[in-house]
Amino acid sequence: MRLKGKNIILGITGSIAAYKAAMLLRLFIKEGAEVQVVITPAGKEFITPVTLSALSNKPVVSEFFGANDGTWNSHVDLGLWADVMVIAPATASTMGKMANGIADNMLITTYLSAKCPVMLAPAMDLDMFAHPSTQRNIGILKEYGNIIVEPGEGELASGLEGKGRMEEPEKILEAVVQQLQVKKKLLNKSFLVTAGPTYEKIDPVRFIGNYSSGKMGYAIAEELAEQGAEVTLISGPVNIEVHNKNIHIVQVESAAEMHQAAIKAFATTDGAVMCAAVADFTPVIKENTKTKRGNENWKLELQPTKDIAAELGKQKMKNQLLVGFALETNNEFENAQQKLKKKNLDFIVLNSLKDKGAGFGVDTNKITIIEKDNKHTEFELKNKNEVAKDIVAKIIELNV
Ligand code: CTP
User: Fold this and answer.
1) Nearest CA among 214, 309, 218 for reference residue 271
2) CA distance 306 to 363
3) Closest CA to ligand 1's atom 4
4) What does pTM read for this prediction?
5) Does any ligand 1 atom lie closer than 6 A to the CB of residue 324?
6) Helices (H), 82-151
7) From the alpha carbon of 349, which atom of ligand 1 is closest?
8) What residue ranges define each of the domains in the chain, with the CATH number in brackets?
9) Nearest 10 degrees: CA dihedral of 202, 207, 210, 211?
10) What is the pLDDT of residues 299-357, one digit of tens each?
11) For the residues of 14-27, what is the DSSP string, one character each?
12) Is the CB of 309 under 6 A from ligand 1?
């Protein structure tokens, strides 16, 4: 599923190679992409929209306007939605219009609005492809930054042999996957993330825990993986699904188990993000049988757990990055700065419980990133997925 979470506009124009677009669409879907087909009027002569909407599970977009019902298709929204626009097959006529901004159909207006990379797989007869006007238009499109998936040589629909045959769907898929990976900034890197609460056993039915939902840590793991990193996610008990296949999850329960797993994994990584709300204390004695209620008070003796972040801070090598979190209620900035130093972190993410919408259980967070040299950046209240992007951007800035 190399295209999981990716939005693709598949543009189809009027060439006999349009039948191959159905196969390309199928390959995109199989790789986990969401695909919106935009087809030109001539494209519809070669392949029926019914096939395409069935394969993509979405109505095909072709006209500017709905059927006399006052609705219209927004090419601007589509252009912003997509991570990549792939026009396959791209005819000489469509490329000519694209090169010159002749926006007389939905495909071209979408192209002009697209903010994402645009890839074209030309398909035409050899003489059309070789014609100076086609070559000039391809040159212009390349200058615009569009990517041409060169046609192959071979037998053409006309019966002639030469260059002009649309590249095979499998090859176009590989070009698209590669194009989307170029943007990834943490390829060949690996990170450790701790997330969620820990449960400290009292007896077989009771534990000491905390309200951490694990959302922030999981969002960071997803974003690191999204940027191409391999992620070991050491997670306390939470109820969140992992999406990216580059995330390897290690389920733990107690602070001691989390400590052991983190120490084991850290040495071979490029860094660690300590997002877990690790219990600071654990019962000295963990009973093997359920403690019965009596009339006496129950005094539970607790001992401090190991500070996992601080331990990794001691082990940290020069090329490794260590990121911590500080959830504070008062004297926030000074406390966070002290933790940064004490644990030998490269930066610390401060969230204050004083801020509405920050902290445990909620989907949002409001953070300040504090670095070693006192440099700090305050962020707005955002969704935790967006906060994860800000944190990972800082990791990329410091690590790459
Ligand atoms: N941390 C850890 N292991 C612990 C306690 C904390 O790895 N046993 C990490 C957290 O994941 C976080 C950072 O250390 O990244 C700060 O956690 P916090 O609980 O705020 O700090 P403590 O050092 O426990 O300080 P205190 O609870 O006294 O504020």
Assistant:
1) 309
2) 29
3) 307
4) 0.67
5) yes
6) 92-100, 106-113, 126-130, 132-143
7) 15
8) 7-181 (3.40.50.1950), 190-399 (3.40.50.10300)
9) -170
10) 999 999 999 999 999 999 999 999 999 988 889 999 999 999 999 999 999 987 777 77
11) SSTTHHHHHHHHHH
12) yes
Strand-strand pairing, 190-195 and 152-155: unpaired
Q: Which atom of ligand 1 is nearest to the CA of 312?
A: 7
- Cβ-contact 163, 130 below 8 angstroms: yes
Tokens in use for 365? Answer: 């967070």
Query: Would you place residue 397 in the very low, low, confident or very high pLDDT band (cuts 50, 70, 90)?
Result: very high
327: its two tokens:
């959830």
Report the number of secondary-structure helices (H) and strands (E) in the chain.
Answer: 14, 21
The residues annotated with a catalytic role in the active site are: 210
- 255 in contact with ligand 1, CB cutoff 6 A: yes
- Would you state the structure tokens that stand for residue 134, as one six-digit string? 């086609």
Contact assessment for residue 157 and residue 169, using Cβ atoms and an 8 Å cutoff: no
Taking only the tens place, the pLDDT of each residue in 14-70 is 999 999 999 999 999 999 999 999 999 999 999 999 999 999 999 999 987 666 666
